[in-house]
Specification:
160 residues, alpha/beta, seven-stranded parallel beta sheet, two-stranded antiparallel sheet, transferase, 22% strand, UDP-N-acetylglucosamine--LPS N-acetylglucosamine transferase, Rossmann fold, transferase activity
Length: 160
Amino acid sequence: MAREEKGVSEYRTRRILAIASGGGHWEQLLILQPAFSGCDVHYATTLEGLADHSRLSNAHLIPDCNRDEKLRILYSAFSLFRLLMRIRPDIVVTTGALPGLLALMIARRFGIRTVWIDSIANAEEMSLAGQTAGRHSDLWLSQWPDVARAAGADYSGAVL
């Protein structure tokens, strides 16, 4: 990812919001840290203490949700909207799951570039959130070449 973006009269460091649910999604996102070198990175996750455990600054806690909890989805979306308006990232990168998808959907409405990286665990088919993410991502990736080909996503290798 490019480190600087030329404005009208200045250069500024790109701001990235890197977001993932806890567990494997979070672990895969952390492996991507070297790709964010030189950028102003804000991290967001659903589990309290994960960012502290990973020794990250600029970390934010977001509410978790799943497809069966409609009110929780709305609460999560509202929280993500507020976070996006406060951080104002140039790019949102997520490894899933539903909170990451919501962040992409909201970010895209505001012209923020978006990247979805489907979990390495989805070796047979794109995750449900990943299938939806294809319509809301500037870059839509699977970590499995066969899954990428079947879904119409891009494949650039695996994080793990």
